Amino acid sequence: MKKVKKEVADKYFKTRVTMIAIFLFIGFLVSFGVVFFAEQINESGVYIMGMPAHYYMGAQGAVVTFIVLLFLNAVINDRVDKKFGIDESRNEQISKTGTDH
Amino acid sequence: MDQQALVSLTLIILTFALYIGISIYHRAKATSDFYVASRGVPAFWNGMAIGGDWMSAASFIGMAGTVMLLGYDGLAYIMGWTGGYLLLTFLLAPQLRKYGRFTVPEFIGDRFDSNFARLIGAIATIIISFTYLIGQLSGSGVVIGRLLSIPSWVGVLIGVAIIAVYATLGGMKGVTWTQVAQYLILITAYVIPIVFMSLQITGNPLPWLTYGNVVEELGAIDRELGLSEYFAPFDEGSRAQFLALLFTLMIGTAALPHVIVRFYTVATMKAARWSGAWALFFIGILYLSAPVYAAFSRFVIMNDVVGQPLDDLPAWTEPWLNTGLLEVTASGEQGVLMWEDLIIHADIVVMATPEIANLGTFVIGMIAAGAMAAALSTAGGLLITVSSSFAHDIYYRLVNPNATDSTRLRAGRIAIFAATIVAGLLALDPPGVITQIVAWAFAIAGGTFFPVLFLGVWWTRINAKGAIAGMLGGLTTTLTYIFLAMNGFILFGIGDTGAGVFGVTVNFILVIVVSLMTEQPSQRLKDEAINLRYPEQMSYEEGQVWLDDTSGK
């Protein structure tokens, strides 16, 4: 066991929180944001993949964005862990020997 | 029995044999096998199992039809039921996994060090999962009944018998691998018909890329007939209702105990994040396909059925007219059928598509097996959740904490078997409101659990009193609003299905206000919350973060 400096630990947490906030904000925009302005988008006559843009976002765009965000999160988080010297195989060991009720 | 019924039956029996074989192979030998599959499920396969767990008979059979009938407004279900995985994977799943318990009520009980909170959590979990379960079982009975032309209660009994065998035997370990198999079966069955329909209508085998033009054409047809366009927003409701429903579905998805528990079956926080990503990828394949089904089938109905003389409807409509899933209400003006004269049941869309596209008996049989897989995989996950609340949270943690491992395993098996039988008996004669209760389950789950789980993970100041007040207040508010909305009392144009907005808000306010007004939680509990900010290798103890730098090899 070795001590982790408070700044380093705080930085890890802050990086995670910032990532999550950005991802959730994008997710919010493509779903709630588009729905909020659906009427205006419909009237504006913007099309994506052959259908009105607001319909496209609801039927396909939002879901695809969600999937991309989740994979980005997984990949970037792995890099952050690596940068902070986290070893996944050690994580697995610790998690196995952890308290199981 | 005709040829179609024979083919469907053979396919269903083959898949049943597969499920039972898998659960015999993956028999549970210890409590940890039974509740969390020994925490050894790889993220990719767990993602697939979450897909099977998540997609119910309603998703498989009903969702495409809902989108077809509601147009744009039906898309709230597509975005809501997928968006919930963002909240779950970003805000809850990895941290709950690091906390390392068997069930959601156990997290609530231990995190706030309160057996009363544990009991509320267990009871709410049982109520939510049980209503959902009855919906699945009656749904699977209806599917078997319709496709095999037998009474639906026989179908329910068959479904119950199969689940009782494999869930009791395999526990979570068996259920995990049957859910993987069930996902593969249901997604194949779901995608094949629209690929062929896409070839017939657009000449391209990838319907997701080409159905946009069909949507646009549907709008043009509607304009011509003087209807509001298919893609016109908020045609069936208001913007407030759409947003409230979207919010309720997302929050509810993130707080459903039977979904959360699947994240307990992986090894680490990293694996939990990857599980979430794979899960939404696999779920997305079905959710991206549902609007395609909707567009194609509406296109066919608009072109081949509407505007036809009443005595010259396409042959595929006849059996559906006979079963009452398709109804013609008026005699038709000028002798032809009008869109307004048609009453279309949402369930018809997926089941009729293979017949509309002339795909033959094998594909129709696959749809039957796929619908059964969807119902059984969800029911399996729900049964584990219900039984773990009884046998683990209530019996072991509250009644008999000294029980040995083998006693607990037996208690789990008895609970799961009993729960299957009780749910099966209730599903034989489901209370009339059951489909509605299943829809409300999202509002109830979100209103009861989401704020408490979210703040339990992220806020150190939350204490047991705040959590209890939040859960009870959120549950009461949700139920009250549903009741009021059903009786015509509507706030801001939000109907009963959007009740989660109010429940979640009240829950959040109560947790925060009551926690701040009462005493601080103990330092140990605060430390446990801070500890969840870091990966397993980093731990928070005595006001200091430690890195376990022993080699991982």
UniProtKB/TrEMBL annotation, chain A:
Q: Name one Pfam family in it.
A: DUF4212
InterPro entries on file: Na_symporter_ssu (IPR019886)
Span of domain Sodium symporter small subunit:
10-87
The UniProt transmembrane annotation reads 20-41, 53-76
Q: Which UniProt keywords apply?
A: Membrane, Transmembrane, Transmembrane helix
Reading the lineage from the top rank, the first entry is Bacteria
Q: Under what name is this protein listed?
A: Putative solute:sodium symporter small subunit
Specify the species. Salipaludibacillus aurantiacus
Lineage, opening ranks? Bacteria, Bacillati, Bacillota, Bacilli, Bacillales
